[in-house]
Amino acid sequence: MPAEEEVRLTVPATPELLRLARVTASGVASRLGFTYDEVEDLRLAIDELCFAVTGGKRQEGWVLMRYVVGGDGDTLEVHGKASFAAPGPEPLLNELSGAVLDALVDEHAVHRGDGQGSPSFRLVKRRSGSP
C-alpha cells in the first residue's frame, strides 16, 4: 500500500461484527510489512479500544473505522468513531487497559465525543525500526 492511503470500514456496534475491525487492521498492517507480533499487538489494541467505546455489549448504531497509512508506509493510524441511536455508555478505559495499550501501540487516546452517543478513539502503531 502506498503512503497516505486510507481504508474505511463501517460495522454495526456489536461485539460479533466488531471483529471485522480487527481483521481489517491485521490485513492492512500485514501489507505494510509489520511483523507477526506487531500485527497481534494491533489486533489486541483494536479490541481494547472498540470495547472502550461500545461498553463491550450490543449497541444500536455503528462504528466507523479509518485505517490511515502514514509516513513511508511504516505507520498505521487507526481512528474509530461510534454513532449510537441513543447516547451510549461513557467510553471506559481503566488503568489496566491503559497500561496494556501503552505496551501494544505507540500512541492511543479515547474521547467522550459530543455527548450524543459518538465516542471515539485513535491509535498509532509504527513498524519496528521506524522513527
If you consult CATH, what is the topology?
Heat Shock Protein 90
Count of DSSP helices? 3
Mean pLDDT: 88
Q: How would you classify the quaternary structure?
A: single chain
Q: Provide the number of structural domains.
A: 1
Largest sheet: 5 strands, antiparallel
- Pattern of helices and strands: EHHEEHEE
Rg computed from alpha carbons, rounded to a whole number of angstroms: 14 Å
Structural class: alpha+beta
* Residue share in β-strands: 25-35%
Give the gist of this structure.
The chain is an alpha+beta fold and 131 residues long.
Summarize the structure in words.
There is one protein chain. By secondary structure, the chain is α+β, with helices and mostly antiparallel strands. The protein has one domain (6-126): Histidine kinase-like ATPase, C-terminal domain (Heat Shock Protein 90), CATH 3.30.565. The chain is 35% helix and 30% strand. Strands 1-2-3-5-4 form a five-stranded antiparallel beta sheet, covered by helices on one side. A hairpin with a 4-residue loop joins strand 2 (61-70) and strand 3. Helix 1 (15-31) runs antiparallel to helix 2 and helix 2 runs antiparallel to helix 3. The longest helix is centred in the middle third of the chain and has 19 residues, at 36-54. The radius of gyration is 14 Å and the shape is globular. The two termini are 19 Å apart.
